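Weekend entry, working from home. Most of the wet-lab plans are on hold until the incubator is repaired, so I used the time to fold the two sequences that have been sitting in the queue since the last round of cloning. Logging both here for the record. First:
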Amino acid sequence: MREQRKRLKGVVTSDKMDKTVVVAVTTTKRHPIYGKVLRLVKKYKAHDEANECRIGDRVEIIESQPISRHKRWSVVSVLERAK
């Protein structure tokens, strides 16, 4: 049986490229020694076939086969539109 592909939720930070958006995914992690909660932000380039995403939209992305040199994710759905 095929493994489940990873799904992440994040905010679109750039839509200047054709059929590509940059999605910032924020995760929290506790420091191993001091216990402080750290907020980590990682950016992913995701494929947006219909060019429907805009800056500020909250989207869900899914792991996919390599589409280009830097793109390994695809936009599944727009969860919330930017105001």
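Second, folded right after the first finished:
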Amino acid sequence: MRIVSAVLASVCVLTAQAEELPSTVAQALKTAGIPASATAAWVREVDAASPRLAVNARSALNPASTMKLVTTYAALDLLGPAYVWRTEAFAGGTVSEGVLTGDLHLKGGGDPKLTYDQFGRLLRQIRARGIREIRGDLVLDRGAFVTANGDPSRFDAQPMRPYNVAPDALLVNFKAVTLQLVPDLQQKTLLVSTEPAPANLDLINKVTLGNGNGCGDWKERLRADVFAHGPTTRLVLTGVFPGACPEQRWNIAVMDHPQFVLGVFQQLWAELGGSLSGGVRDGPVPADARPIAVLPSPTLAEVVRDINKFSNNVMARQLFLTLGMEAGRRPAGTEDADAAIRAWLEARGLALPELVLENGSGLSRRERISAEGLGRVLQAAWKSAVMPELVASLPVTATDGTMRKRLKQNGVAGQAHIKTGSLEGVRSIAGWVLDRNGRRWIVVFFVNHPNAGGAQAAQDALLEWVHAGK
């Protein structure tokens, strides 16, 4: 009986330890004004049968961008790291002496990284086929995905922020332009250029150059307004740019998808010596149209790295819909992607009854998962064939991505691959930590509270505690 009692007492002690946050973490939360009840944590060695730490671990909380781990692991596992998207061009008429008498059709395959440079490569292929003049329209086949007609300001009243761009089967350059802001102190003016420079975008720069030594949050001192001006979109910039600031870059989304594609096409096509007489419209590729160019995307492994290292929301949403598309649904919508991920989880033996998916990126007020649920997904990922690609896609502490500035001059620097998440009222981390004894741990830590913005010290303290391996 004494032996049994001793074993039971030991189990009780371990259970109590597993249900209490480390003192350094608890103190950091207290300092930030965050109650432990607003958090969830789960820590488990990758090959262990039970967690070392489990606090509110089965509570369904908003994970913010750590939800991207579910989407990216599902994609790597279902599609394979070498998967690529295809953007195709078709001639819908006759070609003679460099003239296409008819429409040029562009068919999108959902490529999340069809950048300005990549789009230019596609157009150079078309030009190399001898086509110079297009006497017809630019027709966009965007039928791979359900066309999103939602309000881009719905999430946070910031419709021009690139992270609020809706997914699209023919997403060019994330539907965003980069404004290059260059102060000219001698002329006391601010020079503004754009890349790309859509032919149907009219930039009006009314920004003045300010005095003073401070730079601060320069973007908050500027304003961008968009107006329809016939077939042109007019972007008007006003405000004061601090003269002490160096050159800055400002990414902004100002046009709808078809008009943006048209404008970038017109810009690049003119640079290649081409002309387009028509406008832009949506439509499927006719059966008798001839293929004239195809552009494969970077591999899925490369795309997943961009999504997780830099927490790219629009790329994650493109990938989410791709899972629905590859499950056989065209056009693919959010319900199809949701069903594809749930079927995959079930096949993997990862039932997550608390899971709520909206867009797979974590840029959502609705998405939910438990710390234990996400931890179990990461445990399955560790044992999967695509583990190297998924782990390598995560930011490394004190090194790169969204963890570049965290935990410098600390033992855990360079020893953890951690995905971060940040929304108003939400801070999260999830990933793998290598402790000082050479053991690998899965770590998930969610904070859902109005003071979540102050949770970084507590999350860093948890990573330090795990790395210490005590």
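Plan for Monday: verify the second prediction. The first strand starts at residue 39 and ends at 45.
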